[in-house]
Amino acid sequence: MAVTLNDYLLVSGVLFTVGFAGVLLRRNIIIIFMCLELMLNAANLSLVAFSRFHTGADGLPNYNGQVLVFFIITVAAAEVAVGLAIIVALYRAMQTTHVEDINKLKF
Amino acid sequence: MATTLPWIILLAPLVSAALILLVTNKARWVSSMISVGAVLVSFVATLLLFTQPYPTAPNQFLWINLGAEFQIPIGLTLDKLSEGMLVVVTTVGALVHIFSLGYMADDEGKSRYFAGLSLFMFSMLGIVLANNFVMMFIFWELVGVSSYILIGHWFTKDTASAAANKAFISNRLGDFGFMAGILMVWFATKSLVFTEIAGHWPGHQHPFYLAAAAILIFCGAVGKSAQFPLHVWLPDAMEGPTPVSALIHAATMVAAGVYMLCRVFFLVEASPEAQSVIAWIGTITAVLAALMATQQNDIKRILAYSTLSQLGYMIAAVGLTSHEAAMYHLFTHAFFKAALFLGSGAVIYAMHHEQDIWKMGALSSHVKTTFGTFLVATLALTGCPGLSGFLSKETILGAAYEHNHAIFWALMGVAFLTAFYMFRLVVVVFFAPAKSDAAGHAHEAPAIMTMPLIVLAVLSIIGGYSFVAGHFIELPEEKGVFFVTALAVSLFAAGAAGAFVLYRGKKEEPLKGAIFTLFKNKFYIDEAYAFLIKWTQDLLACYAAWFDRWVLDWGIVRWAFAGGSYGLGLVLRFLQIGNLQAYAFLFGAGVVALIYYILFR
């Protein structure tokens, strides 16, 4: 059985859902952060899959999707650096990494 | 040559005003010389104009062009009417400028004064030369502005600045009607140029439309020529320097209304209703002003009321469809009234700025030249046979006799009153015993002031004869009715004699009684206006303030807008729960809803 585009997209969708569920349900902010990364990589996976299965007239894959993935990886790396710094600062200020304790943003 | 001369006449005073304001404001003597030079240029150019034939090529260029229906050219009219008016304006203007050199010699604001005079000359010449309504309206307003500047020349005096405001605001009332009239005329003819409108008028308009347009246009003249009920500004305008009163408030600006009516006489001609309104307004003004003049004590105010009364004559003449007679009287009146005002200026100068006639007296032996010229001008104004005023007033009375007997008798009464109040003035100021030290030691004005007086006195004598006036204006045809002439002469004699008998040797006003108090207080018209404004405008302002404070500020802004946003915020703040994951959930739900909407709607 050959692996088709739908299989990749299914895996990507599962990864994205798992990530989103984690973001919504987990309490530890570091776990939430990791789930965010999972969602980004789900998107990366589908982009690469699209790139691989959309071959042009010359039989080569459409590389646009793969180039975009490199951008996402770069941005995600930068985002991790900033995000972890924020989490460290947050922990220093509030001595917790649990989101339900961080609820100052209300009237 | 014939096409550039009128532009020189028009623009010379403008150049002078600009030069004075921009360059020579500090050098007062230079400013006065520039101004006098400019008016002399206009004067000489006007005289040269009479050696030229009327230009045949259209002397205009297009200024505003919004399609075929709305075009405003800048162009000049040259015909008998405008050239005659040019002579009046530049002659009187030149003499008044020269007189001002003496009268305003030591004034602090001399540069400002002469710049104002030049600006006035420019605006007045613009009215005279304009060939379309919009251009005339622009200069019309410019005349109002320069009149405002000159009345308020001594602006540190409260009365002067109040008088300037009053003049400007009263004029604006009339000008609003004028503007509406111009719009009506444009609406009917799709043109603003006088000659083109004349070709399309009356067209197929309803008589009511014709009358309304003519009467609205007449409103402009009511304001500028100070006719009842907007006459109240002219007597107060005497707060300005006396030469200004002579130039603006006697000879030229107030005559602009009459000139304008003559320029658009075809509008008046098309509507008999408008004619009777105009004739009656003129007559009412003439009668009221003459009655008020009999009890005034300020030498300039007497002359101001006399001006009102004479303007009433001219307006009545226009209403009696005799615009030649109106222009004729305007022409002669300009000279003798300017002579009277400049004469009163010389008297005031001699009396060290005293204007109350009951503090003067016996001046005939002290200021001989002034007295002589003043007497000549008085005789001309009162209609002494042989002088210019007699001839022109005669034509108006003749026209009244022909058209409307009620107006004729009213104007005859005014002729009697004119002789009475003018000789009251002459007797009290020049013959009655001196009533103050200043009157005893009065001294004659310098030659630069008496010279214009003499020129104007000569013009007052000969200005009415056809060998002078006939060159410059269109004279009405002679229709001497013996009855009219005889009655006018005997009323003149009766008025003059009455004044001599009543006022000879008197030291204070001999006429006392309720009716004379009424005249003295100008029929309480100013008070009536103040009352009217108090009960209309102030009441309206009071209601408007209440509406603004309670309905707008409190009701709409405070209650509806501010209260509404506060309540909305109060409800929306419950969505703000502070849990990061709840926000993420709402965000995700939103994205899902959006995708669902886009894909499956």
Q: How would you describe this protein?
A:
The complex is a heterodimer of chains A (107) and B (601). Chain A is mainly alpha-helical and 107 residues long. Chain A has three helices and no strands. Chain A is elongated, with a radius of gyration of 18 Å. The N and C termini of chain A lie far apart (57 Å). Chain B is an all-alpha fold and 601 residues long. Chain B has 25 helices and two strands. In chain B, strands 1-2 form a two-stranded antiparallel sheet. The model of chain B has no long low-confidence stretch (mean pLDDT 86). Classes of the chains: A mainly alpha (107), B mainly alpha (601). At the A-B interface, helix 1 of A face helix 25 of B.
Sheet/helix structural class of chain A: mainly alpha
Describe the main β-sheet of chain B briefly: 2 strands, antiparallel
The N- and C-terminal alpha carbons of chain A lie at a distance of 57 Å
Give the strand tally of chain A.
Answer: 0
Helix content of chain A: over 70%
Major β-sheet annotation of chain A: none
Sheet/helix structural class of chain B: mainly alpha
Q: What is the distance, rounded to the nearest whole angstrom, between the alpha carbons of the first and last residues of chain B?
A: 83 Å
Shape type of chain B: globular
- Molecular shape of chain A: elongated
Determine the number of helices of chain A (DSSP H or I, runs of at least 4 residues).
Answer: 3
Strand order of the largest sheet of chain B: 1-2
Determine the mean pLDDT of chain A: 90
Q: State the assembly state of the protein chains.
A: heterodimer
* Tally of separate helices of chain B: 25
- SS strand fraction of chain B: under 5%
Number of strands of chain B: 2
Biggest interface, chains and residue tallies = A-B, 13 and 10 residues
Summed over residues and divided by their number, the pLDDT of chain B gives a mean of: 86
